[in-house]
Amino acid sequence: MANHPDPQDLPEIVQQYIKRLARRVGNRHMRRDLFAELREHFADALANAPKDSDRDELAASLIADFGDTKTLARLIKRAKKRCRPLWVKFVIRTCQAVLVLLVIFAGYTYWFVSGRPSFRVDYWAKLTDFSRPVADESLNASPHYLKAIDLYVEPPEIELYRVKDKVNFGSPSPPPPGAIPFAPQTVERVITLEDIVKKPGTPVESNERQALEEWLLINRPALDELRMGTSKPHCWFHYELAQHNGQSGLLFSYDGQQAPLLNLLLPHLRKLRQVTFVLCWQMQFAAEKGNWDSVIADLRSAKALARHLMGCPALIEQLVGIAVDQRANKQLIHLLRSYRLPTSTLQRLAQSLPPDYPIIRMDAEAIGQMDAIQWLFTDDGSGDGHIIPGQCLNLNAMTSGEKIQSPDIGEIIKYSAGSMVHSSRRETVRLFEQWRQRARQYYSATPYQNHISGYSLNAWSNKKIKENPRNFLFRILVPSLEKASWISYAGQADHQAVQTIVALLRYKADHGQFPDKLDQLVPQYLKAVPLDPFGPGPLTYKRQDDDFLLYSLSFNFEDHGGQHNKEAFRNKKESGDYVFWPPEPVERTK
Prior knowledge:
The protein is mostly helical. It is built from 23 helices and eight strands. Among the domains are: 7-83, no CATH class; 363-480, no CATH class; 499-590, no CATH class. Helix content is 54%, strand content 8%. A hairpin with a 2-residue loop joins strand 6 and strand 7 (547-552). Helix 1 (12-25) runs antiparallel to helix 2, helix 1 crosses helix 4 (69-82) and helix 12 (292-310) packs antiparallel against helix 13.
């Protein structure tokens, strides 16, 4: 029809029917078209009814033929959808699928982010129990060590003298032909008492001696507490979770001192090392007076302190114990080189040296890893779970102890995305267990044995990191500990060398000359020939007229004929050996 009929011309029953049907259709465009079509349809059908009563009856009949508005609206919608173009259908279905995915993702994200860890094991209490061999606190050396730390007085900043060094600030490469070389410049350095303290064994002048003796006198109370601690048969510290920035578990309390959960840089260990310098200087001054009883007593104290620290569960404690032991060994070798000791004193020295040397362990590091997993993962009750993005933002504080800052949006996105694809808790625990087994296997063999077998702990760890790219936690929490193993075995070689040197001096005192081979020291002076951890056999011994040469192969596992290089036990690229005897003279500060 050319013109649309006026809705007011239709019976009231028809108008109401059209309105109800339009409301059920809902779509604005469909409703408009539906209004127009139904009006035209009813207007044409009612055009031949002359009377109003006939129009109402006919309208009711037409409505009955149309049927229920609910069913009719559903059929109209279906017909409309089937008539849509294909591209419209594709766009609509795509939008619907995206909407469903967004809803699912939002629900999953909420479930993922809202996860909370469940703390089932108090690992730090477990660590305390593990490191405590007995329950009687009267047998524990740690309270005395902590008191010694509190009493210890660092060397005062006393300016003893100034030295002038010539330093070339030019290019390290030689100048081209015809060019004027860079002239060295003189730089003045201030030498303080602390510079002297760090080099026990150095010959000292009168003003240096006076300052050192005053410093030793001030530290006598600290040394007395240290000796009381070394007289105890055991040493253990108390570990517990601590509060930091309102969050517990990021730090652990170490006898009242806080340290990071995973990076065990314990604050008191620095002072314990410094107290060792007090012992070494006392040994030097006592030897000058011929008081070897005092020397042996201080040596025993240093060795006991070292063994106590080496028996602690944290790797950093053990490394500090190794450093204390090596410092005492160097001081003893210096005294043995400088003084001729009677046989009885040498025998007492031999008896004061501990017979064994413990190799490092990773008890605290393993517990720290398990506690970190407990803090970072959910637990569904069967041991599995997913990593929690919010907890990952605290990794920096857990590993370094730094104050937790508000994370930026980049960190939030990085950790959230990484957490969603991270390996499950069970897979992560299994990976760390494999690493610990490999580490124990690596530490149980000497560096030379690992070298000839081609086994490398770092290479294995890097391989696992590549095989598990989703597990960023393994990459963060697995340290590189090959160097720690080498340091431990270097300390073992140092300890065995001191035992061997004392045995050689005793042999000469009894026989008038040094032996041709180390085998001649067994079993009267040594229980067994000391093996070189960095070589295929024993420590290298060479008799040289009225002296001898004793050394170990260094990190490069090559014999350089006793060529001394103090860097050889720090860098495997360095050539040279670690020579124990004759010791290299301690260089003066000026």
